[in-house]
Predict the structure.
Amino acid sequence: MVRKITEALDAARVAVADSGAVPEAAAGQDRPELQKAIEEIVESGFLGVSLRVHDERGEWAGSAGVAELGGTAKPPVNGHARIGSNTKTFTATLVLQLVAEGRTELDIPAADYLPEFGLDRRITVRMLLQHTSGLFNFTGEVYDDGTIVHGIPIPYGTTGKEWVDNRFHAYRPEELVRLALSKPARFEPGTGWSYSNTNYVLARLLIEKVTGRSLAEEMQRLILGPLGLSGTVVPDASPEIPEPHAHVYYRYEEAGRQKTIDVTRHNPSWVSTGGDMISTCQDLHTFISALIGGKLLPTPLLAEMCTPHATGIPNMDYGLGVFVQKTDCGGTVITHNGGMVGSAALMYSTPDGSKTLTAVLNLVDDADMSMATAFQNAQRRLVNEVFCGEQADPAQPAD
């Protein structure tokens, strides 16, 4: 199950953001334990890590490793990165804001808004955000018996080389949904939980249908503009990523030889709203802090968002666009993480929004997901350091 979640992940507002520099005070010379934590993550196999922590001791930001292969410069602390499935939290927040505006409802059939797809009328808007629709994941499914059913070519498994060759291909969201609907559902609507990017592409289409505007326009109106998230981008099918940024890579075999290529630029429409957005550690902090702090949603809807639904993953349940996770020291964090071909993004907050951790990692990815375990350990290492301190052993292996 953990592997399935990892596979599903698929894959600064401040003036210093543009340069990637941070003032010496913010660089956290008084927080050596945080610098050590990210240096140890780099030593585990990642190219680079940028971390930002806000807690009772104030703000700390720093980076370790390198921004690109063969280079010596560290990753920019406020650099841009593809944030993968953190996109889902932004998208769920947007849907809930439309609920607050009376434009949609959580427990109404999604088919009422998107009749063109012939969706099962038992699938509600809530089920899309909660991953309880049962819809096939267009990036592929791994079933409990080990059976793999492919969807579109993705950078993992046997389709890695095909993804490389077509990494600038543009998919439309409707195309991804129709592919998913051509496959059998995993279960009857509302009877199980399974992480599916299809749910969030449908959420995007629902947003666009009820507002008459693009997802990017609505994101700007309700989230990016009000919070001043100038480093956050809804790219749609654009392969570009703003400067500054670290570079990300993909390793694969061709004609019996290993090749490593720079995939910093690629068309993210293959995952669409399942994980296509670009942001910074600063913007991710501002977003999760505002969200959990009640600045984006009315209290009842925020409570709905953070109400956990069982996933079958130990100590990790799912609300509406967020995981509700138990830490090793017995606390609770609201989180979503994401992986996007050579990059990963972490976003955590205490339930009251008083402490946050945001991070981006750049790495050499491959079809075998050889860094998946290291990614899980990196998450655990940082969460334990920030949210548990000395109360948990950060060296213990991931479940």
User: Anything to note?
Assistant: The two ends are 11 Å apart (CA to CA).
